Amino acid sequence: MTISFRIANVEDVDSIIELVNASYRPTNPHASWTNESKIVRGNRLNQQQATDLIQNSNNSLLLGFKHKQLVCCVLIEKTTDSAKIGLLTVAITHQQQGIGKQTLSAAEDYIAKNLGLNKINMNVLLVRAELIDFYCRHGYKKTGIVKPYPANLGVGEQLIQNLAFEILEKYL
Questions:
Q1: pLDDT in tens, 14-36
Q2: Using an 8 Å Cβ cutoff, are 136 and 145 in contact?
Q3: What angle do CA 46, 23, 53 make, to 5 degrees?
Q4: Does residue 37 lie within any of the structural domains?
Q5: Residue 145 domain-assigned?
Q6: Main-chain phi, psi angles of 12, to 5 degrees
Q7: Which domain does 10 fall in, by range?
Q8: Phi-psi region of 161 (alpha: psi -120 to 50; beta: other; left: phi over 0)
Q9: Number of domains comprising the chain
């Protein structure tokens, strides 16, 4: 399945919010293996956050389309010596079709070709062992660095105590 990618613009905000919130926090927590509904409550992304992400000059939000339908996205944030990948999302109806791998690969290619960086890092919820395993199968390594969940960023209310992120990294 071929996915075509492009950079998001502010006209895409509503579609991005719908994709991300439906995938990260669906009303049916059994809808997909990737959702956080049992871990975090509330929307993952709102209008202002999505607009800010798109307008930040250090960010590139890649959108993936299948037959003109938005089916995936990934946020790339340029830092001083590396890039950070986040918000990797695949629509629930399009999961288990290799789109997550394609999206990750597109982000890595974008980082190498457009940012000239060879180090990537990401935050993955420590309790999401299946996601950590997915990224490790694609060359990411655990750094041993753990950071607390950002309760004050408006990305949802944690439902379990001491929620934390594990930092993963990969060299291209």
A1: 999 999 999 988 777 666 766 77
A2: no
A3: 35
A4: yes
A5: no
A6: -90, -5
A7: 4-121
A8: beta
A9: 1
Residue 81 or residue 32, greater confidence: 81
- CATH of residue 115's domain is 3.40.630.30
> d(Cα 162, Cα 93) in Å, to the nearest integer?
31
| Distance spanning both ends of the chain, measured CA to CA | 24
101-131: pLDDT as tens digits: 999 999 999 999 999 999 999 999 999 999 9
Count of alpha carbons within 13 angstroms of residue 150, beta-carbon side: 7
pTM for the structure as a whole: 0.93
Cβ-Cβ contacts under 8 Å for 50 (sequence gap 6 or more): 13, 16, 17, 20
DSSP 3-state of 147 = strand
> Amino acid identity, residue 37?
S
Structure tokens at 19: 């994709």
Q: Which whole number is the average pLDDT over 67-91? A: 97
